[in-house]
Amino acid sequence: MAMNNEIEELFKSNYAAMHKLASMMLHDTDSAHDIVHDVFTAVLDRTDCETLDPGYLLACVRNRCLNRLRALDVRERFRELYLVDNSEEEDTDEWPDEEIIAALENCERSLPTQCGRVFRMRYHNGADSKQISAELGIGERAVFKHLRHALDIIKSKLNQNG
Amino acid sequence: MDKYDKLLDAIEHPQNYSPEELEHIASDPELSRLYSTLCAARSARFSENTLSEGDVEREWRKFSRRNNRKRFAGWMAGRKIAAAVTIVLATSAVLAVGISIGLDMSRRTPSEHDAKTEVASLTDSAIYSQVIDSDSVTIVDDKLIFEDETLDVILNRLAPYYGVKVIYRSDDAKSVRLFFKWESSLSINDVIEQLNTFNRIQLRLDGNTLTVN
Q1: Phi and psi of B208, rounded to 5°?
Q2: What is the C-alpha separation between B140 and B144, in angstroms, rounded?
Q3: Of A25, A117, A130, A137, which sits most exposed with the smallest number of CB within 10 A?
Q4: Which among A8, A16, A125 has the least Cβ separation from residue B51?
Q5: A–B: how many Cβ contacts below 8 A?
Q6: DSSP secondary-structure letter at A29?
Q7: Residue B177: how many CB atoms within 10 A of its CB?
Q8: Could you report the predicted ipTM of this complex, rounded to two decimals?
Q9: What's the pLDDT tens digit per position in B115-171?
């Protein structure tokens, strides 16, 4: 078992980064707190003296999140926009990587104003079509068209950059 | 409806698709990449906020409180070797006495100051558990953790399991409060032995009758 002050030090210097990773993967800050607490509880139970570096702690968070996502049915994952992991071939070690987020931001800059607004409300904030339609005073059909337009732009941008 | 429309529609209305159809959509390399990009958009929202130092401090306090409680349960589990038992008595007055016998000292060597902290935090966790549990008996698989419970409550709970009848010769003993971790693997004699390490109560088994003095 690691010494108490060592744990406190590890906890305080890594908690925020671990929590951010878990929230990004689970899209939920409360579950993210649970995951990080679980990781540190497991650390307390460890009897070996292996190095507990930030990389190890983040890997623990990632694995616990992936386990939680894998337990979900595919419909649930689509609904919550969770990563659908096709295990073997896909490399989830880096997810969600900075690269894809940077590429996305780049794409979003090219979206027309209203289209970008709809896109961010739907995918960033997780609002559903009904809410977006009510808030912007447009039909749900129009919401879908904006999303499709955004997808086309993102698709061509991603193809350009290989 | 082309495959891109289908991807968007599947995200909007996954209930209209069978799991196989959704897996099929996700297995298309191009759609999979687009889907991942949309996931990243949802994730990006959560990359904006970083917890403040105050938030982390609050989580640390929560963690260390739970950990003290857990460590205590760990102590109780350490009783396996003969009489390695820890029982904390809290009388109705604010007197709390900790007794630890045959404790695996390599686990931890508490200083006097530590010991005081431990008792204080146990009181905290007992209050905490009353908030989250309907009572202060926590059921974990085939274990029961009694936190600051009276002997009466503990024995009422355990007696049916062992099929024994409890008789009190002393009302005083009934209201003695204990922290006690029970496991289904313990025999009635193990339980009696452990409870008897605490000298204010004396249990004796005669046939199916458990007498408490």
Answers
A1: -105, 15
A2: 6
A3: A137
A4: A16
A5: 139
A6: H
A7: 21
A8: 0.86
A9: 444 444 444 444 333 333 344 565 555 777 777 778 888 888 888 888 888 888 888
